[in-house]
Amino acid sequence: MVRRRLAVRFGVQLAGAGALLVVLAVVVIIWILARFEEIEIRRNFAPTGISRLIAESRTDAGGLIADPVLLERLREDGGWLQSLDDYGNVIQSFNAPDDLPDRYLPGRLMDYWIGNEPYPYRLGLWIQEKDGVTYTLLYGARSPTEDLLGRLIDDGRLDGGSLSFSEATLAMLGQRDGWVQVLDREGRELGAWGRPEGAPTSYTLQDLALQTINNDGVGTLMDTRYDKRTGYTWVYQYPMSEAQRHAMPIPGMMPEAQVMIAGLVVFLLGALLLFIVLSVWYANRFGTPLIHILGAIRRLGGGEYAELFPQHQPKRRWFALRKKGAAGKRRNRIFGEVFESLESLTRALRAGKDAAERTQRTREEWIAGVTHDMKTPLASIQGYAHMLAADRYSWTEDEIRKFASVILEKSEYMDKLINDLSLTYRLRSGDMPVVFEEQDARDLLEKAVVRASGQPGYDGGRVLLSLPSSPVPAELHEPWFERIVDNLVANAFLHNPPDTILRIAMTQGEGEGSWRIDFADNGRGMDEQTVERLFDRYYRGLNTESGSEGSGLGMAVAKELVQAMGGRIEARSEPGHGTVVSLIWDSGRGERVRTADVQAGRDGS
């Protein structure tokens, strides 16, 4: 159960961690795509910027209400937009110069668009639907250096590897902080103006193509114009604008590469953070309780059976015992059963250790008591035997009979002691197969009391018997029942003053087959410790001068016999207030036999 629970828990948590990584990867990919779109818009507003402008615009009766940020990007790109109706009329204009017409003839606009007719701007046509309305946007752009390149060609003078321009042209060049180069047909430099040191002096076809289209890697922009009259190529280079540099935070690296690296770093950092969080969580959730469990097992192996968590220390949440209700089960469904098992094992081992210590103490008490009581009659027997065997004495026949009587009495006491010990052990081991016969417990009790109270020295008048009016059917073993009554009557008279009164009352219970017998005397009573150990074997011994009625095992034998017949025995007493011993039967014989078997096996262990 615990293995499956741990497997499910780890599987669910790892799946959850994987799902978080997938979500993080999706977020990073979305961010990368958005950044790619931003880079493309900054690099060239059309067509990505136009599509986004339409998608993010709001509409009203006058047309599109564009995002101011995108319009600023349009202005930085040097482009403009015009919204046309189905007939070429201009509805709206965005950043449009003054030289643009208010209406385009459809056929002529197509010639402008595909290049069949010259037009001062590069055109793009974008048709997109939004909110059920189809919008036609005309995009135009002109390089910010196009007019400047034309002026440079017309105004520039090439003289021996150097270029010169008029004051007006130099003022225009100074505004952009750029430089000019003139290349021959092979791409070698013929002359230059303002070229910084380290700038190339020759260009291949690939150099011009790549740097003209993609300037991000070098941090400068390049525009070229071919002069048909001379066959020269005029090259004008100038630094990127602030917005363009912002799109490329690491000089010399493509913006797309920077975005990819940033996205990868974010994903790896997120995965590392998730791994750290999971590691800390697993260490706290599983590692710490496992360490405590192993420590508890190690202490148990070393013979330390103290509580895993003493009462003065608060129990940790992951070790709290399982409580009723869904909340408690959720909190403890992993290690709750393990902890409960450890607690049960600790209690069982502690109880076993305590029981072993008690057994050892009891065994020592048995040995001491039995040795004492065996030595006393044995000493008497040996003494009289030596007297009879002595040659220097001559004994009369009466003296010999008296000695023999004492020897017989002491030997009978020893025999009774041995028989009682044997009986208690056989009862505890369950090795006493007997046949229970259904009889009237009322009649059995009456006969047993008459027999027990008739012993010399008991004075039968001190026994008061109370019986129910109706029969009490019960399945009992008559010799055992009489032995129980004998022992209880003897115990009441032998350990109390001579004037003690014993009241024996039999009553029937409410349930079928339920009845009890109470033996109540008005003697000196017992303290709590004596009551608790009243039924222990040889807890309270009698010396041989008390007669042969007691072996010191009477109450222990009575308890074993009552349990063997399916009943139970209880005692209540206070010093100076007498003692009450109760024999109680609560159920039928079948249940009694099962109870006796279980009890015999438990006590015998």
UniProtKB/TrEMBL annotation:
The keyword Transferase applies. Keywords: ATP-binding, Cell membrane, Kinase, Membrane, Nucleotide-binding, Phosphoprotein, Transferase, Transmembrane, Transmembrane helix, Two-component regulatory system. The keyword Transferase applies. One of its GO terms (cellular component) is plasma membrane. Residues 369-589 form the Histidine kinase domain. It is found in: Cell membrane. One of its GO terms (molecular function) is ATP binding. It holds the Pfam family HATPase_c. It is a multi-pass membrane protein. It comes from the Bacteria. The chain crosses the membrane at residues 12-34, 259-283. Its main location: membrane. It catalyses: ATP + protein L-histidine = ADP + protein N-phospho-L-histidine. Its EC number is 2.7.13.3. This is histidine kinase. It comes from Paenibacillus methanolicus. The lineage of its organism: Bacteria, Bacillati, Bacillota, Bacilli, Bacillales.
